[in-house]
Design brief:
By secondary structure, the protein is an alpha+beta fold. The protein is 38% helix and 12% strand. It has helices spanning 20-30, 78-90, 136-152, 169-183, 191-199, 245-253, 271-274, 279-290, 298-322, 330-335, 337-350; strands spanning 9-10, 39-43, 51-55, 60-65, 98-102, 112-116, 211-213, 222-224, 231-234, 241-243. The strands form three sheets. It has a six-stranded antiparallel β-sheet, with helices on both faces. A two-stranded antiparallel sheet has the order 7-10. The chain has a two-stranded antiparallel ribbon with strand order 8-9.
Length: 353
C-alpha cells in the first residue's frame, strides 16, 4: 500500500452514502453561519469512523460519523471525540473547532459531528520526505512538545474529570483489547496475540500517572502549518481517554520500531542521513518537555502498544470481512495483521518476556 493512497478525498463510497439533503437541513439549523449548497466528498484515510469533507461556497467543514452496520460495543464514539476536542480547545491545545454534534440516528443513519476544516500539511511518511533535511529536527521537536503539552493539560480544569477512569490504565486496556480480539471470531486467532494476552498482565510496571491521552498520536494524525514546523491541529481522538502518559508517548514513539507497513514508520531508515533524532534522543526530549528524569517501563509500554495496535488491525480485519470497514485499503491492513502480531511479540521479548 502506498501512503499516497491515503491522501485527499474521493467520491463517497457506496457503503458510506447517506441522505445529503438531510445533513444540509441539519447543518442549517445547528451550525452557525452555514450556507449551502453542500457538496460531500469522503476522505480516503480514516480507518474507523468514516470522515467526509463538506464543501460550501463560503467554507469547508469536516464530518466524522459512526460507520453503518454492526459495531463493537464502545467503539466509534464520535460523541466522546467531539467532547474532548471542545475541552482541549479551552486549554489552547491545537485542535479543530467543533460546530455541532448529532446523536439522532434518523438524520443520516448514525451519530456524527461537524468540525472545522483545518488547512495544512499531513505527514504520511515518518521520514518527512517533503521537508528539507535541515528542518526535520524542528518538526520532530514540534511533535514531541505537543504530546508533552497534552499530558500537562489539567483535565479537571477543562471538564474532563469523568472522561475515563483514572488509574489501572494498562490493566483495563489489556483487558479491553484482549476481549475485543477474542470476541471477533471471524477475524481469527494468532499465536503471538494469544501469548501476549497471557504475558502482558504479568509485566505491568508499578506506578500510576493520569493525563488525557490521545491514543493514536502519529505524524499522519496531525496537521502541520503549511510552511512552518508547527502543529495547527491534532486529529482523530476516537481512542482518547484518561490514561497513562507512558502508554501514550510509547505509542507515538512506536514509529522508531515500526516498518512503514500500514502506518508511518522509521524502522530500517538511516536516521542520521535523514537528520532525524534517534529514539533515545526523542525519549530524552520528551522527558525534558514533560519534566521528568526518565520513563521507567518504556519497553513494556512498547510491547503493550504493538499488541494494542495489532488488536485494532485485527478489528479492521473483522470489519473488512463483514463489509463495514471505513478505509478503502482495509484489505491491505487486514493482510498486515500477522506481521504486526509478530512484531508485538518481539517487543515483549525485548521487554523481558
Amino acid at each position: 500500500m502506498s501512503f499516497e493512497d491515503q491522501k485527499g478525498t474521493s467520491a463517497v463510497r457506496e457503503q458510506h452514502r447517506f441522505d445529503e439533503a438531510a445533513l444540509a437541513a441539519w447543518m442549517q439549523d445547528h451550525v452557525a453561519g452555514y450556507q449551502g449548497p453542500l457538496i460531500v466528498e469522503q476522505f480516503k484515510g480514516g480507518q474507523s469512523n468514516p470522515t467526509y469533507k463538506l464543501i460550501t461556497p463560503g467554507r469547508s467543514y469536516v464530518m466524522r460519523r459512526k460507520p453503518p452496520g454492526q459495531l463493537v460495543k464502545g467503539a466509534h464514539a464520535v460523541d466522546r471525540e467531539a467532547r474532548v476536542l471542545a475541552a482541549l480547545e479551552k486549554a489552547d491545545f491545537p485542535v479543530a473547532h467543533v460546530y455541532g454534534l448529532c446523536t439522532d440516528d434518523s438524520v443520516i443513519g448514525t451519530w456524527f459531528f461537524i468540525m472545522e476544516m483545518v488547512e495544512g500539511r499531513i505527514m504520511w511518511d515518518a521520514t518527512f520526505p517533503d521537508v528539507d533535511r535541515e528542518e526535520r529536527p524542528a518538526y520532530f521537536a514540534a511533535m514531541n512538545a505537543t504530546i508533552a503539552a497534552l499530558h500537562k493539560v489539567d483535565y479537571k480544569a477543562v471538564g474532563l474529570e469523568d472522561y475515563g477512569r483514572p488509574g489501572s490504565y494498562f490493566e483495563r486496556q489489556i483487558a479491553r483489547w484482549s476481549k475485543q480480539y477474542l470476541a471477533d471470531e471471524e477475524a481469527g486467532r494468532n499465536p503471538h496475540m494469544d501469548r501476549l494476552i497471557e504475558w502482558l498482565p504479568t509485566a505491568i510496571p508499578v506506578g500510576e500517572e493520569v493525563s488525557v491521552v490521545h491514543g493514536d498520536f502519529r505524524s499522519d494524525n496531525m496537521i502541520f502549518h503549511p510552511s512552518e514546523p508547527r502543529i495547527t491541529a491534532v486529529l482523530d481522538w476516537e481512542l482518547s481517554t484518561l490514561g497513562h502518559p507512558l502508554a501514550d508517548f510509547a505509542y507515538h514513539a512506536m514509529m522508531y520500531r515500526m516498518p512503514p507497513l500500514i502506518v508511518p514508520g522509521l524502522a530500517g531508515a538511516d536516521l542520521k542521513a535523514l537528520n532525524i533524532p534517534s529514539e533515545e534522543e526523542y525519549l530524552a526530549a520528551y522527558c525534558r518537555n514533560s519534566g521528568r528524569d526518565s520513563l521507567p517501563g518504556y519497553d513494556f509500554a512498547m510491547a503493550f502498544n504493538f499488541f494494542r495496535f495489532a488488536a485494532i488491525i485485527h478489528g479492521i480485519k473483522g470489519r473488512y470481512l463483514r463489509g463495514t470497514a471505513a478505509n478503502a485499503d482495509a484489505k491491505s491492513r487486514a493482510d498486515a495483521f500477522p506481521a504486526l502480531a509478530e512484531l508485538a511479540w518481539d517487543q515483549a521479548v525485548r521487554a523481558g518476556a
